[in-house]
């Protein structure tokens, strides 16, 4: 095993730990790890990310389910519409994207690079959301607004399908604002939604013949270990403090990817 691979598997543990602690953020790390450490093409990296984040989040959601911290009614309202949008996006929209995606005279923007630029945009938005998020344990929003949750689920499904991100940075605030969940239940519920969303998205790519299953399963195993550790540590670390710190890291990684990709154009 090379030093780069070892670093990648250590990063997989960290990505799983982040999901367990914050209810999201794992895909923000897994896609760059696959692209820059394991040299996977960006579109295929989003496929790998869906599997890793889905399987890892499923392990974490089982632990939270035993603690009775998951709101299954809210999960159904958010996740069912999202199932359809993520599968359709992954199965039909992403393959239908032209390559290059944009071309003007001698300048062209390949599909893989387009995915990365969109991913960087999402990373920056996620980082700012985590850094600015207020510390609110309870919400006075009243009864869950299930229709708005369903519409939000449709949008998150498209995002998940396009860039392989679970969308936890969007899901957790919406569960607090629209469902009135306290933060710890929003994190737990978000992990279950991410698990199902990501797995459904991966099913849309299951027809691919270029999946490196040994790499994928090994990476996922390390990530699963990380989420078990993250769920345990969540008892001791304030979620808001962690989110702000992680937001700073995500912003730094986004700037690095942006500079690197602009340099290659």
From TrEMBL:
It is a multi-pass membrane protein. Its main location: membrane. It is found in: Cell membrane; Membrane. GO terms for cellular component: plasma membrane. It comes from the Bacteria. It holds the Pfam family TauE. InterPro entries: TM_pro_TauE-like, TSUP/Inactive_protease-like. Keywords: Cell membrane, Membrane, Transmembrane, Transmembrane helix. The keyword Glycoprotein does not apply. The chain crosses the membrane at residues 6-38, 45-66, 72-93, 114-133, 153-179, 186-203, 215-233. Belongs to the 4-toluene sulfonate uptake permease (TSUP) (TC 2.A.102) family. This is Probable membrane transporter protein.
